[in-house]
Amino acid sequence: MNSQLQACIDQVEKDYAVDKKLLCDAFDAFIKLMDEGLTSKEQKRECMPMIPTFVSRIPTGKENGLYLAGDLGGTNFRVCSVRLNGDHTFSLTQSKSRIPSELMKGNQGLELFRYLAKKVGAFLKEHHADYSCATDGRLKLGFTFSFPVNQQALDKGTLIRWTKGFDLPNVVGKDIVELFQLQLDELDAPVDVVALANDTVGTLLLRAYSNDISKSNAHTVIGCIFGTGTNGAYFELADKIKKIDVPGNGMVINTEWGSFDNTLQVLPSNRFDTIVDSETANKGYHRFEKRISGMFLGELLRVTLKCLADDGQLFAKLKEKRGGSLPHRLEEPWQLDSQVLLYLEIDDSTELRMSGLILENELRLTTTFEERLAIRAITRAISKRAGLLSSIPIAAIVSRVKDRYKDDDRDFEVGCDGLVVEFYPGFQDRVYEGLGMIDALKGLNKKVYLRIAKDGSGVGAALCASTVDN
Length: 470
Ligand code: GLC
Description:
- The protein is an alpha/beta fold.
- The chain has helices at 3-15, 20-39, 109-127, 176-186, 199-210, 213-216, 271-278, 289-292, 294-310, 316-321, 328-331, 338-346, 353-363, 369-401, 419-423, 427-438, 456-466; strands spanning 51-52, 64-72, 76-85, 90-98, 139-145, 149-153, 156-159, 191-197, 218-226, 230-237, 250-254, 411-417, 448-452.
- The strands form 3 sheets. The chain has a 6-stranded mixed β-sheet, with helices on both faces. A 5-stranded mixed β-sheet has the order 4-3-2-5-8. Strands 6-7 form a two-stranded antiparallel ribbon.
């Protein structure tokens, strides 16, 4: 790489750097913001939401029965029926559809719920036409709705704000279960929405259900997602949840950690982060998520490349040839899929030719070998930061629950789901590296393991529904 380009890349790596001090400061801040969120009744931008979920027990693996689940997490809606076998295992039937983009934005919020209800109806017709899973002719459905919701009961919660590209202002402040139930009733579907769950709650419940402690020797303490968005849930003791009266000894809390440090007191922030935030519908919110999750990694890379091109550091020849412009997928927001970063990172071909083809195909971007080296270095800087930052909430929650297990020599495990944690090369290693730097379990003979828990949002919602008595 020529020395000018090298200096520019060195600077970008510095812009995305995260060191031990930052992680430790952020770990302290996270614990403080958890307590503030558990105390404050008001939803302030500077607080983490820390939403009580009204799920008051963690599965043991002995749960039984057949339940429905609906899952709206991002661009897809899934309908599932889940048979819990009572021995840590389950079987699942499901169908998935892509939400039409015109239902994700605009003033027609109710249309979205009509669409979801229709999909449930179609699923029942196809897989349970005899309503074989019904008790009293009605079916129980757990609804995974992976957006920040102010939950007032297991089956009642109002939307705080949309994330992940949805923007339907009519729905904000409304009870999600009521909206969905109304549309199901209109269709005469014999279905009762009995539980509203966040995907992280489902992941926690599913992993706990699947975890046979006698074999794994580890307690499941967190359920989390590193996918399109990022978030986590854990069980909190009643006396710590000061903002509501908690019956029993505690409740699962949906932290909405995507909103950790919205006011950027400790999180790293560079000019590229500022641009990405300014392009989103939830500006100033979910700023932690905007540094970590799949929806934003591609956009961070696009913005970084575009800025360097505008500064004359990259693609100068290409721009000259094109009369001053760049390919439109580099110019326009949200055109670079995070999947591209994954391919760029695993490329071991001579002169990074595979990356060349991918950039050409995905972005219509012709590159030189030198430029590909630069793009790879930037990609690594972005994903390294994402992985290291992801260790902060895990370390904080583990340190918070550790005293509950002080007379127990088992390890801790974290149920994880999402494309980033499952498939992004090196992501899990970075999380472990960050956990090592923070060292939240110093002096204890315990380890923290990340365990992939797929389908938390389907099976987990069914587990939530299973907690409701007939
Ligand atoms: C976003 C949502 C949150 C969800 C997460 C993962 O952060 O606000 O509710 O759990 O994405 O899907």
